[in-house]
Amino acid sequence: MLEPSPPANEDPGWFADDPTDPSAAAVAVTPIPGEGATWAQLAQADDAVAAYAHDHWLDGVRPLDALTAGFQATRDSLHQVAFFVLAPARYAATGKLGLRYTHRGFGTPFYRREPGQDEQVRVEGGLLVHQVGETARVTDLTTLSAAASFLDLEYQEEWFDSFHDPLDPIGPTAPLEVDPAAAEVLGGWFGFATHVLERVRRAEAEDISRVQLWPEHFDAAIEAGSSQAGQRASYGASPGDASHPEPYLFVTPWDTVDESDPFWNAPGFVGAILGHAELVEANDPYSTAIDFYLTGLNVLTR
User: Fold this and answer.
1) How far from 181 is each of 1, 18, 21, 67, 294, CA to CA, in Å?
2) Is the pTM of this model over 0.90?
3) Which residues are CB-contacts of 242 (< 8 A; sequence separation ≥ 6)?
4) DSSP secondary structure string, 183-246?
5) Using CA atoms, how far apart are residues 297 and 253, in angstroms rounded to an integer?
């Protein structure tokens, strides 16, 4: 679960595909206690497994990284790459556009354009990676046009006409600012967030969706709760934006709520946020993040 990306599948929708069905395996390996063998349990018996789980944000103990000086510029450039390069690559091949956390970054799930050839496009450590089968090509990120050309795509600013709020483009030839250290921090944020959101998916709530990294918003999120009862909300993790420069977790209700409740503390929109700095300072950022999301579920259902 979480990483590596599950094999390509033909499920409908635009979402980042779920991991393979645990019932098809002898033992399910998961970060979620009670769902099978946890990565933490496996790590106790094998140092190599422990290192892998830690590196891929699977063990639930890896600390969050401090933000670097180049984080905001790198985040904004990689948002452009996510929206104008990675999502269109998957959409052109499958009609799906959802992204996901991948090792040291983010990317598409594996998908297939040809039978038997699993394919993935991802940003790893600030580099653009195109993998087909066991073969991976790598290039620096310089401009959106160059990135699209590397993937044999034509750069397009209006590649999908149904986004409610598409990202404003910087243009095909504007230089991308990608600092490798900042890109690693960004990948770590998505790894941490995906771990937490996968665990929240086990909560007692109606109609919980898959974890998806939305290319237009550049956040990892799930949706949960009854729409009919006015309890549905988005639960996610943003790497920051123009109004909130640092990464933050959020709960955004879909319907009207009692804004006098102190839980709804977000400046600029109706919702709740928990900032990166608070998580870094927490004794257990994973439990702190999960408790934040579960509080949101409880506030909306009480």
Assistant:
1) 25, 29, 35, 9, 32
2) yes
3) none
4) HHHHHHHHHHHHHHHHHHTTSS-SS----EEETTTTEEEEEES-TTTT--EEEEEE---SS--S
5) 10
Yes or no: say if 119 and 92 are a contact pair by the CB < 8 Å rule: no
Residue 129, token pair as written in the block = 């990676």
Distance CA 227, CA 123 (A): 35
Kindly report, residue by residue over 11-34, the tens digit of the pLDDT: 777 777 765 555 555 667 777 777
| DSSP summary character for residue 36 | S
φ and ψ at 170, to 5 degrees? -90, -10
Total residue count of the chain as it appears in this document = 302
Structure tokens at 194: 């995906």
CA distance 280 to 274: 11
Do the beta carbons of residue 82 and residue 213 sit within 8 Å?
A: yes
- Rounded CA gap, 37 and 25, in Å? 12
Residue 125's Cβ-side half-sphere holds a number of Cα atoms within 13 Å equal to: 5
pLDDT digits (tens, 9 = 90+) for 57-82: 998 999 999 999 999 999 999 999 99
Q: Please report where in the chains the tokens 């050309």 appear, as a residue.
A: 149
Q: Which DSSP string do the residues of 7-26 spell out, in sequence order? A: PP---SSSSPPPPPPGGGSS
